[in-house]
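Posting this for the archive.
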Amino acid sequence: MNEALTILDAVPACTVINTRIMHAPKDQVFSAWAEPDLLKKWWGPNGFSNSFHLFDFSEGGRWSFIMHGPDGRNYPNESQFVKINPPELIVLNHLSNPKFQVQASFEELPDDRTRLGFTMIFPTEEECNALRAFVHEKNEENFNRLEAVLSGM
């Protein structure tokens, strides 16, 4: 199997996990990840915007984009989708530095709510520990932005 398409089945010692109950049906939350016009509205921490160059939402497909920071800098990003199981799971490898894998899970809850699980898996404990506090907070900002998009759908 292509190294870029490896799924990390065992939970390594170094993960960052965020979860959030979204007040939207699972299909809608999944769509906000799968549809580039929706995804670019919320992806990234507060103050960031996105320019998508390629979004091939298929297993093995690439996602190439630039995050435009509030500091005026541009942050190129390259990812590859590893596994897509609609509307349950999206796994992608972030190929740009820092390298990590994202496993996003979508669990249907009563009253048209969804539990979103977001796990970042880093290749080394050193990389993970260097970013853990920062990315946990920024993932929460992502979720806030996602909720705003969902409320407008």
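DSSP finds three helices and seven strands in the chain. The chain has one domain: 12-151.
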